[in-house]
Amino acid sequence: MSASGGTKAIVAALAANLAIAVSKFVAFLFSGSSSMLAESVHSLADSGNQALLLVGGKKAQREATPQHPFGYGRERYIYAFLVSIILFSVGGMFALYEGYEKIKHPHEIDHWYWPVGVLVFAIIAESFSFRTAIKESNTLRGRKSWKEFIRHAKAPELPVVLLEDLGALVGLILALGGVGLALLTGDGVWDGVGTICIGVLLVLIAVVLAIETKSLLLGESAGIEETKRIEAAIVDGDTVTGIIHMRTLHLGPEELLVAAKIAVQHDDTAAEIAGAINAAETRIREAVPIARVIYLEPDIYSEAEAAKGADPEATPGGPTQHDPAH
Length: 326
What we know:
Low-confidence stretches: 1-5, 317-326
Strand content: 5-15%
Largest sheet: 3 strands, mixed
Helix content: 55-70%
Number of helices: 10
Number of strands: 3
């Protein structure tokens, strides 16, 4: 996995969640708090999620094969999608069930200092993990808002870790609130209410992650800025006079496919066109280094055809807004 995959953030989150999961489970055994049980399962699920992200990053590094000629870059998207499913089922649904049972059959919390102490420790540990994820993300985020970064990031690991850590911190605060109210009022129902709030939070985060990773699995194009750089690199104003239509597709977070039909002059020789295509490919890779698979098809530009407008059937998905008519 490349640096942009956020390996450092994943490892930091994995170490924090393993330590927190153990401490929460010990606190549950001593106190009987359902919030602590839900939180311990949450941290255990998060640990498994980070392990899945590391496995996905490792598998994505495999070389292309005849059966998979474009490589295994999308393995990272598949494992990120699995994370969203686990977070929804093991984390969210389990917490909702535990909260319901606690409200239905409430009991007082024993040895209150165990859950309170562990929750404070967990908040501190998760804060360090969250800080690492933020620091790693800022190197890629640039001027984008956090919402834009999570929505448009092509590498899934950092958005996953960011949302998991955020959910963990908010969940810990909810658990602390539930335990605190249960202790103050002597009513164990509040512990169950806190557990249900944790479950709702985890389900919402899981849904957001599922939507974003589904989009990546279906295949996303290059970003707007990258597309503009590719278009500028293709046209040389001499042999390649324009772009008839172009499509881009992420084969993985750091691998981009570029396919374009380019306009050339009708009197250009085959050698001139071949040389222009090779030069254009070199310029594209210099402008956007992740553009590793490039297919350029030459065609003769026709003013008569251009006057008819763009052909929606020219390529799958129809013409883009940047495409000049053919």
